[in-house]
Amino acid sequence: MFIQLYNKGLAYRKRGFVNWCPEDKTVLANEQVKDGKCERCGTEIVKKDQNQWYFKITDYADRLVDDLDKLPDWPENLKTMQREWIGRSYGAEINFTIEDSGDKIAVYTTRPDTIFGVTFMAIAPEAEILETLNLEGDYKTKVEEYKKKAMTRSDIERSSATDEKDGVFTGKYAINPYNGEKVELWVADYVLAGYGTGVVMAVPAHDTRDFSFANKYNIPIKVVIHPDKDSSLDSKTMTDAYTDYGVMVNSDNFDGLSGKDAIKAVTDFAEKEGFGCHKVNFKLKDWSISRQRYWGCPIPIIHCKSCGTVPIPEEQLPVELPKVKDFKPKGRSPLADVQEYMQVKCPKCGGEAERDSDTMDTFVCSSWYFLRYLDPHNDSIPFDKEKAAQYMPIDLYVGGITHATGHLIYFRFFQKFLKDLGWVQDDEPAKRMFNHGMVCDSNGDVMSKSKGNVVSPIGLMQDRGVDVSRLAMFFTAPSDKEVLWSSDALTGVEKFAVNKLYPLHEMLRDSSPDLKCYFKRVDLSDFEYALYIKLNQVIKQVADSFERLQFNTAISGLMELVREYNSEKIKNDSFNDYLILKTYQLSAPLVPHLAEEVWKLSGFRKSIFKSGWPVCDESAIVKDTVVIGVQINGKLRDEIEIPADCDQKTAEEIAFKSEKVLKHTDGKNIVKIIFVKGRIFNIVVKG
Length: 687
Hints:
Blueprint: H1 2-7, E1 11-21, E2 26-28, E3 33-34, E4 37-38, E5 46-55, H2 61-66, H3 76-86, E6 89-98, E7 104-109, E8 120-123, H4 137-150, H5 155-159, E9 167-175, E10 182-188, E11 199-202, H6 208-217, E12 225-226, E13 247-248, H7 259-273, E14 276-281, E15 287-288, E16 290-291, E17 301-304, E18 308-311, H8 339-342, E19 343-345, E20 352-355, E21 359-360, H9 362-366, H10 385-391, E22 394-400, H11 407-421, E23 430-436, E24 439-440, H12 457-464, H13 466-476, E25 483-484, H14 489-501, H15 526-548, H16 551-564, H17 573-587, H18 592-601, E26 625-632, E27 635-643, H19 648-655, H20 659-663, E28 669-676, E29 680-686
Parallel strand pairs: 8-10, 22-23, 24-25, 26-29
Antiparallel strand pairs: 1-2, 1-5, 3-4, 5-15, 6-7, 6-9, 6-14, 8-11, 9-10, 12-13, 16-21, 17-18, 17-20, 19-20, 26-27, 28-29
Helix pairs in contact: 12-13, 13-14, 13-16, 15-16, 15-17, 17-18
């Protein structure tokens, strides 16, 4: 995959500032940094300047956003997270001119209608443009000192809306192409190099951060947007920036324009004059895939002094990891110290060369491994294209929401790239996505190997059995919610499985019922038919619960069914055995080992999983009668059984035959009767 990306110009190497974890001594992608910390060990991330390999995922940014509309069965919150992470915005790129050199400095803005209010520009401390400004004297010294300080802060801290902003003046100016005015060039760490060009035009009157910065350093504030034609702002009396859209003022020929019309007119003018253009920007950055550790797929690149970076020929793939004595990272990959691995001949010129010592982020392999399941024994190609066309896309993909802006974007990127190569036919890898909840310890912390708070399922299964362990996990919470794990969860389900469900086979009467048949009302007693209705309701409930992956409700339904079973009240032997065997079929996906055993004990030779899944009798889903409470002046006085579809007149006739109802209504004035079919019967009386 790396070679294919490299050949298409989508895998490249560059030097730049990266996220560095001092504890793990490796680079992290933006997606692996949570709140400024390493998602694995929780250490504060620092910025480090070094060479890295990247995948150009930004080339697919538009498709990654637009194709979310093709995924109606993905959770909306996940799609929202991806849209915000990719962060597509529409605006303009404007070229300012550096005063003393004539060089151009490009800025991206979503508010070109405020362009006449620019009074300074802020440059990210790590932006490449800073190196071309030719700073001198004290300005150069102060900027270098500021850069060192800024590199100790995380992107989260730097971009925080609440922290006080600071910066340092460069002594340089740029010229605003719209009005020819000079604007100061500052370095400020609230600007991130990854956003746009790493330079922002600062409009203090109409941006909160710029307003605070300008007041701190006595930079002019110029109002260029009024809320409307009848309202005006004065920079001398403003206590904060006005950031909404409004009417352009102090903006030459653009005065009076507002909203989208203003933005379009200002940008169109820049395009016409040749100093700007309409621009689409993304927050998403290229995927940094180099890692300075042993595990992970080796990067299949050879570095030659004569030929540069040379991909390893496909016939020499895969590159296998060598044995190493010390796996611990030292700020470089452990592979760098294995000379027999590192020193190779250049595939192009045959001269002395060296392998790339880094390995790939493990998310690289996990982002397309699922395709290997289509053709796992193929030794010549990754998978057969015809099999991919037959089986893809995946019907259901289960994964944690924690990977929403990482793996779940990466595997969509890989799918689209493989489609471009002709290996797959679908734009998206999975039709339906289900985000499962996380298992937490008793303190509410997510269980993780790195935290050392994992409860091993092995000991649990050895002690209580696989089926009881599965049942406890399924029953503790809905599958999409967090599970606060406790051994107490095992007690109730163990009693159900061992003391209630398993012994049912002892109640069989060897009637060998037809499991594909449906019973008629006339064939069953009132108790039996009520239980038959309950069975079919549970069949439907379990099927629906499995479809929604809400296993806890399926288990609840089975518990209710088993609780209502009473062998002594069932006279029909065929129905008795039918109900027990159907119950085992329904429970088989939840407790497979128990179900297989009782199925065999029930006289079947073939697996229960080959017996056919129960299908409900739709005519027996709803009871013929329902029981509802009768309230008098808000107090429950009796319960009555009425036909499920009866009208109010019939319900009243039945209700007023009740002695308890008559006791509280005799001799009193009935003011009103409130009746909701099958649910409510309220009587309001006076006297």
